[in-house]
Amino acid sequence: GAVIVSILPFFDWGQYQFSSYSFNCGMTMESDSDRSYFLLVLIMSLLIPVFIIFVCYSLMLYVVMPSLISQQRMAHSSRKEKSADSSSDPKSTAIEVIEEQMTVRVQVT
Given a cut of 90, is residue 47 above it in pLDDT? Predict the structure, then answer.
């Protein structure tokens, strides 16, 4: 996409202009051709990549969330079983809960 956008001004579609004030080049917006070139650059350089990133992250969440939910359910059910089986002091059960949460986080990452 970047090659296409870079080559098009050589074929008189779009135009870059040097600004001596800020010592950089920028797109001009003087004609309809320049405006359409700007829209093409906007679509190819921003909108399409953002859309692709959004779709990829959504698919990753779609794949990962069921296993994460099942791990949390298993940890929660094992915590219930341990608390029902043991009648120890609250400090040791709190430590066990923290240890289980840490192992679930390590397994996810």
Answer: yes
> What are the backbone dihedrals phi and psi of residue 54, each rounded to the nearest 5 degrees, phi first?
-60, -45
Sign of CA dihedral 99, 102, 104, 106: negative
Residue 48 to residue 54: CA distance in whole angstroms: 10
pTM beyond cutoff 0.90: no
C-alpha torsion sign, points 59, 63, 66, 71: negative
- Scanning the structure block, which residue is given the tokens 């940890």? 75
Among 70, 93, 95, 67, smallest CA distance to 81 is for 93
Q: Has residue 53 got a pLDDT over 80?
A: yes
33 by DSSP, 3-state: which?
Answer: helix
